[in-house]
Amino acid sequence: QILPANEYILNEGVVGEEAYLILDGKVEVRLGAATDSPKVLARLGEGDVIGEMSLFDDRPHMASVMALTETTVAVLNKNDFKQRVENMDNVMRGILRILIHRLRLVGDKEIIKSFRTDVAGWDR
Fold first, then answer.
1. Residue 30: CB partners within 8 Å, gap ≥ 6?
2. CA torsion 72→43→9→21, rounded to 10°?
3. Does the pTM exceed 0.85?
4. Which residues contact residue 97 at a Cβ distance below 8 angstroms, ignoring those fewer than 6 apart?
5. 60-88 in b/e burial notation, b at 16+ Cβ within 10 A?
6. Per-residue pLDDT of the chain (124 residues; tens, 9 = 90+)
C-alpha cells in the first residue's frame, strides 16, 4: 500500500486495527500532534514497524505517525496479527506481553511529563 506524504497514518488516542512494515519512505512519530507544539519522538524508515503495540493490547496509540514522504508499507491487520501471536511459543508470547506492558508504562510516564508546564515566571 502506498501512503501519500504529509498524511497521518496513525492517530494518537485511537485503537489500531493494523500494523505497518515500512518498505520505503520516511515517517515521523509525534506526541501531541493535535496541539500547537507536537513533540517529535522519532523518525523511522525502511524496515521499521508502526502500530504494533495497539494490536498487542487493544489500547490506543500513544502517538501519531505522519508520512514525511510518499511511503510504501506492508499492512498486517489485527486478526492476522493476533493469529500469529497465538501461534507463538507460550513462553515467547508471555515475554512479549510483559515487554509491551513495560513499554506502555514508560510511554505513559513520558506522555505525562510532556504535558507538564513550567509556570515559573508567568505573570499573575
1. 12, 38, 39, 40, 41, 63, 64, 65, 66
2. 40
3. no
4. 56, 57
5. ebbbbbbbeeebbbeebebeebeeeeeee
6. 999 999 999 999 999 999 999 999 999 999 888 888 888 989 999 999 999 988 988 889 989 999 999 999 999 999 999 999 889 999 998 998 899 888 888 876 665 555 555 555 555 5
